[in-house]
């Protein structure tokens, strides 16, 4: 990995960290507003909606806290000089993968193996676009122009 690529990954990590922290502050403001509104709920529907929103915000924050930890870990690896190396097989992680997931610890192959072992693997079935000439319209009320 070149110094320029490493700096690009570092900047991407710092940007993502800033976005997460910004969302966290917005979440805190939303929860504070919900707490104020919940002091005088108007009906059961309002109570249900507020409860759902609070649970959703809590789940999002857990995911983002995990991502923050991974980002901080990746930044430490940049400082130590071990960033971009798969923690499983020791092979250099493709720069394209680091651009997509800059806090990743594993190359694509090892990540797939780990996901298979943990039961979280989701295979990609690909996407075949449907071409307009493949579409047949059989309606009597539509005539040719």
Return the CATH topology: Four Helix Bundle (Hemerythrin (Met), subunit A)
**CATH C-level:** Mainly Alpha
Strand content: under 5%
Assembly type of the shown chains?
A: single chain
CATH architecture: Up-down Bundle
Query: How would a textbook summarize the main sheet?
Result: none
Q: Helix and strand string, N-terminal first? A: HHHH
By secondary-structure content and strand pairing, the structural class works out as: mainly alpha
**How helical, in percent, are the residues?**
55-70%
Total domains, how many?
A: 1
Unreliable stretches (pLDDT < 50, length at least 5) are none
CATH superfamily membership: DksA, coiled-coil domain
Distance between the termini: 59 Å
Mean pLDDT value: 80
Could you say which overall geometry the principal axes of the C-alpha atoms support?
A: extended
Work out the helix count.
4
Radius of gyration, in Å, reads 23 Å
Number of strands: 0
